[in-house]
Amino acid sequence: MLLYIHIPFCDSKCFYCAFNSYTDRFHLKHEYMNALKLQLRNNLDNYVIKHNKKIETVFIGGGTPSTIKPVEYEEIFEMIKPHLEEFAEITTEANPNSASFEWLQSMKNLGVNRVSFGVQSFDNDKLKFLGRAHNSNSAIKAIQNANSIGFKGINCDIIYGVQNDTLESMKKDFDTAFSLPITHLSAYSLTIEEGTKFFDRSSVKIDDEELSYKIFDYINTKGFHQYEISNFAKNKESESKHNYGYWQHKEYLGVGAGAVGYVNQHRYYPSKSLEEYIKNPLACELEKIDENDIKTEKILLGFRCLNGIEISLFNEQELKKINDLVNYDKVYIENDKVFNKNFLLSDELALYILD
């Protein structure tokens, strides 16, 4: 079982961000963390302890987890420690402007062994355009600090497909990232979502599939292999085990306002409102996921990454389509699994098979 913990506070709202996060509710931090602990205790009792399960990975995301003082996390780690698998991967997201040396050191002392920095770019003009609160130097320093403290895993997020991006400009970002002691790179194509400052500004995004392929090839030449449509790792050990858990359709607890959990073929959704969540952190909406939806999700997620899809999942008609795709050199079959050769085509392949 996986555990996701949502921290909905940010120093500033990035212009592309559609996540459940707030820049004007800092006075609710302590109350929010207390409510989060109540939900976590309830989830541990009902889903982990009751069924004698172990937590394989923990991911603290946001928002910005580094806006919360480490002391607020202490009780959380005390609660989950008895239920962690040995050598569990424990990741926190962090922003360079708030992840000080002291904050990173304190989080490592609590048990965090992997940190994911929302860098997005090392170009200061691009950072301003995206609405980021840090600059290139602070991003570089944060990564260097994490390495000197001794984090085993360090991820760097980079966004591409932004207005004025070219292969050459992106190479500069990637070269800077690879000059630093990172073990993992996430390269995300900019998406324009409703409710963001970039919504209705289509000019800020470049739709260039050829650029994506060139970027993927360039990252590969730097010794980082692509194991999912947006994720690259220095070696097998550096791949995100938490993300793989989602792609393998494992169960996960979602703790916090706007988090999502998946247990017993149901998704549950705590309130997105901070005030409502603080009042009643145990209230949530339930959604039943039927077998057909589970199959569709397994296929979509399996084609997005190196995990592949169990061939036993497909019926006779779908297997004929898979054989067609094998003949067209789009997929291959190995060890009773179907693997995608081109992650950018994952949705199209899934739709073709399931249609």
Annotated CATH homologous superfamily of the largest domain: Aldolase class I
Characterize the main sheet.
Answer: 9 strands, mixed
Q: Given the structure, what is the number of helices?
A: 12
Determine the CATH topology of the largest domain.
TIM Barrel
Structural class: alpha/beta
Q: Please state the overall shape, judged from the principal axes of the Cα atoms.
A: globular
Distance between the termini: 32 Å
Strand content: 15-25%
Give the fraction of residues assigned to helices.
25-40%
H/E order of the elements?
Answer: EHEHEHEHHEHEHEEHEEEHEHEHEEH
Mean pLDDT: 91
Radius of gyration: 21 Å
The total tally of domains equals 2
Strand order of the largest sheet: 7-8-6-5-4-3-2-1-9
CATH architecture of the largest domain: Alpha-Beta Barrel
Low-confidence runs of at least 5 consecutive residues: none
> What is the CATH first-level class name of the largest domain?
Alpha Beta
How many β-strand runs?
Answer: 15
Domain Radical SAM core: 1-233
Keywords: 4Fe-4S, Chaperone, Cytoplasm, Heme, Iron, Iron-sulfur, Metal-binding, Oxidoreductase, S-adenosyl-L-methionine
Subcellular location: Cytoplasm
GO molecular function: 4 iron, 4 sulfur cluster binding; coproporphyrinogen oxidase activity; metal ion binding
